[in-house]
Amino acid sequence: MNPNCNSICLSVVCCLIAVLSAGQLCQADFINSPNLKLWFDGSDILGDGSDVPDGTAVNLWADKSGLGIDATNYGKTGGVYVADAMNGQGGVYFGNSGDNWLRTDVSSELDFVESTIFMVADFMSSLSHFSVSQDVYRDNEYLFWDSTMWHHYNGAGKYIHPDFTVPDTELYIQAGVWGTGFHDMTMFLNGTETYGGEWQFGGGEPDFTAVPRAAFLGQRAQFFGEDFDGLIAEVIVFEGKLTQQQHNEVGLYLTEKYGISTTYVPEPATMSLLALGGLALMRRKRK
Question: What is the pTM assigned to this prediction?
Answer without folding.
Answer: 0.85
